[in-house]
Amino acid sequence: LSKEIYYSDKYSDDHFEYRHVMLPKELSKLVPKDRLMTEAEWRSIGVQQSRGWQHYLIHEPEPHILLFRRAVNYGQQQLVAQDQNQMPSKQSATVH
Known about the structure:
The chain is α+β, with helices and mostly antiparallel strands. It has helices spanning 25-28, 39-44, 74-86, 90-93, and strands at residues 6-7, 11-12, 16-22, 54-58, 65-71. The longest helix has 13 residues, at 74-86. One of its GO terms (molecular function) is cyclin-dependent protein serine/threonine kinase regulator activity.
């Protein structure tokens, strides 16, 4: 069934990039109707996308379409965080 999932191209505004994912009817039955899904939940039904995407909106007339967004600079934020984690602290860089 995961081969039948349709992923839109990404589109964006000044703050977010967006995409929508269309599920086949069998999988759409697994989507909660009264709340947004966590990343673990949408991954568990077969949706595959890179990190940082958030299920942000339920379009009630079409519950089989999941609407996702993430910050426009999400990738840059991750690189900065990774670089900061790899920088040696001043204490550990001191040679005795």
